[in-house]
Task: structure prediction
Amino acid sequence: MKIYPRDLDAHLQENLAPIYVVTGDEPVQLRDICKKIRQRALQEGFDRRELRVLERGFEWDELQVLCGHSLFGDQAMLDLRLLSGKLDAAAKIHLKEWCAAVPEGSLIILQMPRLDNRALNEAWAKAVDKVGVIVRVMPLDERETRQWLSRILGDRQLELGESEVAYFLEHVEGNLLAAEQEADKLQILLGPGPVPMERLEVLLGRDARYGSSDLAMAMFQGRSRRAVEVARNLQAEGIEPVTLHSMLLREVRQLLELKRQPAGLEKIFPFSRRDILRALVERRSESQLRAVLYRFLRIERSLKGNGLEQPWEALQNACLAFSGKDRLTPKGGFRLSSPR
Result:
């Protein structure tokens, strides 16, 4: 049968199939699923594990020997790993034959890249489907990713608020392995307990290369200090201010459009940005957002050398104004001396 990872726990509580094909492109999920199956197998007496990486020349004729009873009476689970590519013709033939006459007390766990619908309809996959389980690993959605992150943070006794979790997700961009590594780093450097945003920004941003979207999100979050830090890093990396201005202008225009048509938020943006943008759209009026747009439009004069400010100074000041450091139309200009 075919199941998804969320169904695995319930399945394993009932029985243990003779063969599991765990297929997908998310290494952390693949690892965790295979670990659960191995732990269940230990409870059933499979106290020996034969690990094989499938490469050219693998002797498929050894299937019966590798996952059968040994001379000492113990049972072995055969843990097969196909790291890339597809099963070759010999593999498909042997797996089909093995499924047609499963040896008593046998267990195979085959971990492999994602199978598309065409591959799932091949004869070998249908044979596995009849006697075993195919676990299809799909990318996590917003709710599942947040639940997963809450679990790994809880395992490490790290306490993050909603804003901190949103920032964390934005930083790792849906990469679960990167999320685990960053969580381990926070645990080592901070220990258990609350993790304030200021510390999170410093620790997650260390050794990072910033992009233009980082500046936009810092501005949208109202993080003035981070906005200045990102802008100065972009300047040091040689990013042209006209390119950055074009991106920020597009973001502000899109934000104004979201204010007028909020439904677009769910259709366009990745979930890690939605909470931040939704709060921003609710907090700012349309007239305020129009004033922001006008402010960024005026920067074009600085880019052409006709403004009172230098291009980078104008961009940073506009970001500071938006994030709440100054009013949108202050008297005497904007200051960069003491960002929040």
